[in-house]
C-alpha cells in the first residue's frame, strides 16, 4: 500500500504540473495543428499514467478521469474549443480544475477562483456547488428513459456523453453535413461516438486487468449505436403519427439495455474478477484513509493542547 501511495502522490503532482504547461505554453501557440503538436507529450503522459498503479481502483479512476476525459478536453483545447478554451480567459486554478475534474461553470461571474476555493470545491463537490463550480451529474434517472436515444443522449453517464458530443459527434456530423445533408449527417456521427466509446471502454478495462481485450464491450456499444441510428431513422419515417406510450417504450428500453449489458458488457468484468477486486480495494482505500485521518486529527489535537 505504501508503494501505491507513493505512486499516487507522483501522479497527483504530475497532473497539475502538466496542465501548467498547457496553460502557460500551449495556450500561447495559435490554435490548430501547432497547438495540437505541443500537446502530444501531455497526451502521451496522461495515457501512460494509469500504468503507474498496481491496484485496480486508482487505475480505473486515473484512466477514466485523466486518460479519457482530460485528454479529450485537451483535444478540444487544441482548437480553442470546449471548457478549456481561452474565451473568456481563465485563471490557472480554474483551468486545472475544469481539465482534471468533471465540473462545469454555473456562475462565471464569481471567477477568478483561488486555490482555497478549489480545495473547498473538491471537498464538497459530491454534495453541492461551490464558487460557481458544480459537479457534472453522472446520470439523470435512466430508468425513466423512453428510448435508447433518450437513454444514451440525455440520461446515462452525462459527463461522457457531453465529452463525446463535442469531441466526436460534432466534428463527424460537420464533416458529413456537406455530403449527406444536416439530418442524415447525424447517423454516421452517432455511430462514430459509440465506436469511440467502445474503444475507450476496452482501453480502460485493459488498464485495470492488463489482459488483452475480448472486444465484447466494443460490440456492446456498436450494437447500441446501430440501434440508436435505427431509432432515428424510424422516428423520422413515422414522425408524430405513431408513438409508443412510456408504459411500453420505457420497459422495452431499460430491458434491452439490461439484457445486452449482461450479454456483452459485464462478462469481461465479472469473468476476470475485476469487479470484486475494485470493490475490495475501495474498502481498503476507505479504511486506510479513515486511519490516516484519525492520525492527522490526533496530531492536530496534540499540537493544540
From TrEMBL:
It comes from the Eukaryota. This is Uncharacterized protein. It comes from Vaccinium darrowii.
